[in-house]
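Please check this protein record:
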Amino acid sequence: MNAVLKRILVKLGWTVVVFLGITVISFWVIHLAPGSPTDLQTTLNPQAGAEARARLEKLYGLDQPLHVQYFDWLKRLGTLDFGRSLSGDHRPVWDKIKERLPLTFGMNVASLVLTLMIAVPIGVTAAWRRGGWFDRISTVLVFIGFAMPGFWLALLLMLWLGIYWPVLPISGLTSLGFDTMPWHEQIIDLARHLAMPIFIYTFGSWAGMSRYMRSGMLEVLRQDYIMTARAKGLSSRTVLFRHALRNALLPVITILGLSVPGLIGGSVIIESIFALPGLGQLFYEGVMARDYPLIMGSLVLGAVLTLAGNLLADLGYGLADPRIRVSGGDA
């Protein structure tokens, strides 16, 4: 038990170190970009001169050295204060993130569930029937999925399903008069607006995940204990789902852990194309406006998701393979 507790404390300690390293590098890099919030606010105003710009820099704390700005920001972060946005309505950053988080999180979770429901059966079947017609067809579809950029597919779907054959809306989250609709029509309206973005997320993810699932299953099927199970006369279904599947899920668990930070980064393009008010679009707007507090708030959220994804992957390894739990406890 002491070894397990020690391992957890060491992991938490490294997590804190990695998190601080991410914030230091991010804070430094965003200040390397040309322009500043004050430049963007005063450039289009002919009456705003150098004195007005200096007052704004002092108001925002941008006149301080970079390391002083970072430690001031880190102190506020200790109280979960991300500061106020430097652009737009100047509202607290956390309030803006809270408004956009449910949409982005919901779309990505729905896409992740659909991806698993599609990719795992395809990968398992392709590995079990290696070289057959199903394996060949799925391989072709996977290559198509890899080769098709998400933004290009989004434009095609908008053209076909939104203009030539207008069955789905191509932008926004709701239709006009949404507030006056009955609750079941509101659900249908939301589903119609989110159908194309969720499809694009899923189409871009299932190809890679099904290949990892197929590769992991092929590796497991070559193991001695699988051959022993077959020699004992166990049915193919028992061998496949009771003995092989859990161990073959390890590569997929790794991909799932790495996909968690993509909840923000992977949403920027799709949310911008479909004009969806999510975190990706908020992050893009913050970058364009050089809104340092908003950018850092989004990056901190991405860092937390990255570290949480790694932790969840470790826990998933233990659930999928008991040998990992035993080795971890004895370490």
